[in-house]
Amino acid sequence: MTPGELGREEAIARILRVDQAGELGAVRIYQGQMAVLGKGCAGPVIKRMAEQERTHLETFNRLIGERHIRPTMLSPLWHLAGFALGAGSAMLGEKAAMACTVAVEETIDAHYARQAEQLGDDEPALKQTILKFRDEENEHRRVGLAHGATQAPAYPALSAAIRTGCRLAIWLSERV
Ligand SMILES: [Fe+2]
Ligand SMILES: [Fe+2]
To answer: Are 104 and 149 in contact (CB under 8 A)?
Structure first.
């Protein structure tokens, strides 16, 4: 890792803090979607993605615990906002829920790619974890596209709003 304005330890703390926050948000998004669409035909697909997000979150929960990194103070907000985003998009229909998934996972893909690059040869195990999760997020994006995400009502606006929200959440969770 190239030492930027942050020390190495603070840089890694930021990485783990924001990733734990993001995976918490993801778990809550899929819980919100399940609450609305769980019994519909997309239920099993959403459930599988939800289970993977649960594993991602458990991993980062463990890593921040091991390294004594405090979670973001915004966790209660992501807990609520994630569920609201998941349930809200699902109430607009299955395709809107999938559009939400695609928008979120696109943002996370870029985010994890940037982190992997930032880590370089430092922290190979952490880098591997991030790259594995990135592959799974990309799989979620493909699932969303295969289930008609782009046919959601007002797809470009919906997608842009969610991506902006995610980027803001990332920015905040790295800092607060
Ligand atoms: Fe995830
Ligand atoms: Fe995901």
So the answer is: no
